[in-house]
């Protein structure tokens, strides 16, 4: 009702309102929306009341003073050719129009049923309209309990002008509920966003599974291909070894964004978009890490390889049992670097794998923040940060051994 009163009379001063209405009020806090249409002795309030009921109020909160089920059924019979048509529109299962009755005070109507009910109400005189709702039910309950207004004011220590003027103690009820259920409410608000993110990330979508598969494939491929390339350059003194290293290092002189468009075009022509192969290419080989691995392999004692050769060991056996076994510290650093690069990949993953079924966690986070609340985004970021912390804690001992043990020697 404020949408009608405030634009016409303002909401800070009641002088204009009192000048237009016969019943004066000291402030808008004293205003009571009548349950029935005001009489002809209050023409302005009557017109405003009818306008509010017809244009703004949900028909669920309007009932008939004298319900006429026969007139209601006749109205519906004119609108619908058969009870089957009514059932289809209302989504009901009435056997005949005789089973249709007007909604009572506790029944909530919605959809097509509400629209039909509103059209029926508009055909009735406003004197038949009665407003219902929790405020009026509260006033009726108070009147039934206390009988007189004096008893109510004495019990509530107030000075209400009518039973309908007594406000519903919503704030007090909410406070009592919060105090009685403080533990459950704290747990609910502390975990709600995490539960929503968990459902979106793991149960309803595939970003977490895609990320796990991608990271495992990326780390496996990188920890096999780059050590093999560095081992070949270290073990076999090829004539063009330094030229190869120069070419590999030259690739690091350009930012990754420069190669995204050519990579996208090649992957599109090969039909590899939206595949894990497309995602793995940037992390499978890196010239800088091949250079570092070659330098580490060069520091390994050559006598070990000579002894293994005399014992008849193959190159692959020497690679896995000697080189890889003695290179765990730098391999741990390489694995951690590849994990971070794959886990935090965003722009490249968004370009070569735009399909929702192939979203990894970073791409999903970008999409999720477009529709989720700020609290939900923070919860998602916190959950996404846990794997990086776990991986670092698992790899830190191996990394520190690679730093401390050579110093002690």
Gist of the model:
This protein is elongated. It contains 21 helices and 2 strands.
Structure report:
The chain has 409 residues and is mainly α. The protein has 21 helices and two strands. Strands 1-2 form a two-stranded antiparallel ribbon. The longest helix has 35 residues, at 374-408. The termini are far apart. Residues 405-409 have low confidence and may be disordered.
Helix and strand layout, with pairings?
Elements: H1 2-9, H2 15-20, H3 43-55, E1 62-64, H4 69-79, H5 83-90, H6 111-122, E2 129-131, H7 134-146, H8 149-156, H9 170-180, H10 182-203, H11 207-235, H12 241-250, H13 260-270, H14 276-284, H15 287-298, H16 302-310, H17 315-326, H18 328-343, H19 347-352, H20 361-368, H21 374-408
Antiparallel strand pairs: 1-2
Helix pairs in contact: 10-21, 11-14, 11-15, 11-18, 11-20, 12-15, 18-21, 20-21
Strand-pairing-aware structural class: mainly alpha
Helix content: 55-70%
Number of helices: 21
Count of strand segments = 2
Rg from C-alpha positions?
Answer: 38 Å
* Alpha carbon gap, first and last residue: 85 Å
List keywords for this structure.
two-stranded antiparallel ribbon; 409 residues; mainly alpha; disordered C terminus; 21 helices
């Amino acid at each position: 009702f404020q949408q009608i009163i405030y634009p016409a009379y303002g909401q800070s001063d009641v002088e204009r309102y009192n000048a237009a209405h016969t019943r004066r009020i000291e402030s808008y806090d004293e205003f009571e929306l009548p349950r029935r249409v005001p009489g002809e002795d209050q023409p302005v309030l009557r017109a405003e009341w009818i306008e509010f009921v017809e244009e703004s109020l949900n028909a669920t909160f309007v009932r008939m003073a004298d319900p006429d089920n026969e007139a209601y059924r006749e109205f519906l019979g004119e609108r619908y050719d058969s009870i089957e048509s009514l059932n289809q529109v209302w989504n009901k299962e009435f056997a005949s129009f005789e089973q249709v009755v007007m909604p009572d005070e506790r029944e909530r109507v919605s959809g097509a049923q509400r629209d039909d009910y509103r059209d029926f109400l508009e055909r009735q005189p406003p004197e038949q309209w009665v407003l219902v709702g929790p405020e009026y039910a509260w006033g009726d309950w108070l009147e039934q309990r206390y009988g007189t207004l004096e008893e109510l004011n004495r019990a509530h220590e107030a000075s209400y002008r009518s039973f309908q003027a007594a406000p519903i103690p919503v704030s007090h009820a909410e406070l009592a509920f919060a105090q009685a259920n403080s533990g459950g409410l704290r747990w609910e608000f502390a975990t709600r966003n995490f539960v929503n993110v968990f459902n979106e990330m793991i149960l309803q979508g595939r970003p977490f599974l895609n990320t796990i598969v991608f990271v495992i494939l990326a780390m496996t491929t990188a920890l096999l291909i780059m050590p093999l390339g560095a081992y070949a350059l270290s073990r076999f003194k090829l004539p063009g070894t330094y030229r190869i290293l120069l070419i590999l290092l030259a690739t690091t002189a350009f930012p990754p964004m420069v190669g995204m468009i050519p990579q996208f075009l090649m992957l599109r022509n090969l039909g590899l978009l939206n595949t894990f192969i497309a995602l793995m290419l940037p992390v499978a080989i890196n010239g800088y890490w091949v250079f570092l691995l070659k330098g580490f392999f060069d520091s390994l004692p050559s006598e070990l390889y000579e002894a293994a050769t005399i014992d008849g060991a193959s190159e692959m056996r020497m690679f896995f049992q000697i080189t890889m076994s003695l290179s765990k510290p730098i391999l741990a650093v390489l694995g951690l670097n590849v994990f971070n690069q794959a886990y935090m990949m965003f722009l490249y993953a968004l370009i070569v794998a735009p399909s929702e079924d192939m979203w990894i966690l970073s791409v999903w986070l970008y999409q999720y923040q477009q529709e989720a609340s700020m609290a939900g985004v923070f919860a998602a970021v916190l959950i996404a940060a846990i794997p990086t912390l776990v991986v670092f804690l698992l790899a830190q001992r191996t990394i520190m051994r690679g730093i401390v043990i050579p110093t002690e020697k």
